[in-house]
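Posting this for the archive.
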Amino acid sequence: MPAAGGSGWCTIVQSARKGATIGWTAFSLVLGAALLHASWNLLVKASNDRLVAGWAQVFFGALVFLPFLLAVGVPWSAWPYFAVSGIVHVAYSLSLVTAYERADLSVVYPIARGAAPLFITLVAFLFLDDRPGTVGLGAIVLLTAGVLMVGLRKVGNGSWWALLTAVFIATYTSIDGAAVRSLGESFAYTITVFVMGTILFTPIVLRARGWPGLGAAVRAERWRYVFAGIASAGAYGLVLIAARSAPLGLVAAVRETSVVFGALGGWLILKEPLGTRRLRAAALIAGGLVLLAFAG
């Protein structure tokens, strides 16, 4: 496993230039994760019961991939990581659902995802010795400026919840990034975190909705919830795979391109506006991606 550090993406890109495919594969994995992540957020926002939808994407994410976890085994050596991460993931889900109750997807999602990279970079620098380098930091700033331009048009109660969500994102990404680097494995850990999140989240939902309310909500939108669960677990698994060989701040920055997919989904499906402000923000994000890809 390559050591963490600012040369991570430089090494990847240089290897790609020499004919290897791992660099662009990792880059594509994170972009795929961004699309999946935007998809399940869109489903949660469009749900008739967002609290149940937030729980269901965790529950079905764990359920669908549980056979894989049973086959390979729970990574018990990482139990302090997935125990704490499960708590943070539940807090993240509750914060995100609350934000969606108070503001549009096009406001909440960009703020939550856009503010996270800087938090992650700071935490990773302080505790994981991740140093993305000057060019990498410039790419993160450019990407973050773009996604925040999408989301900070309106600042209100939902925006503050979105910022709190970003703090939770930074926290669990740093915890899980450290975990998969110590394990040398990503997906079994991801599913274990989802199982832990399900165990912790279920009593909260049952207290709020009861068994009848929970059952009715799941029956009404079960296929939407199943897809959201698969997309959620799959997206995070892809991110953790990439985080094994690249600085967390840069991986997180590329993942934030999900706001472009989210804006398009909000425009096409939820009929939210997509004006010149969002188009300019998309240009900033694209520029950040180019800078990131050629940081070497």
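The chain has one domain: 21-293. DSSP finds eleven helices and no strands in the chain.
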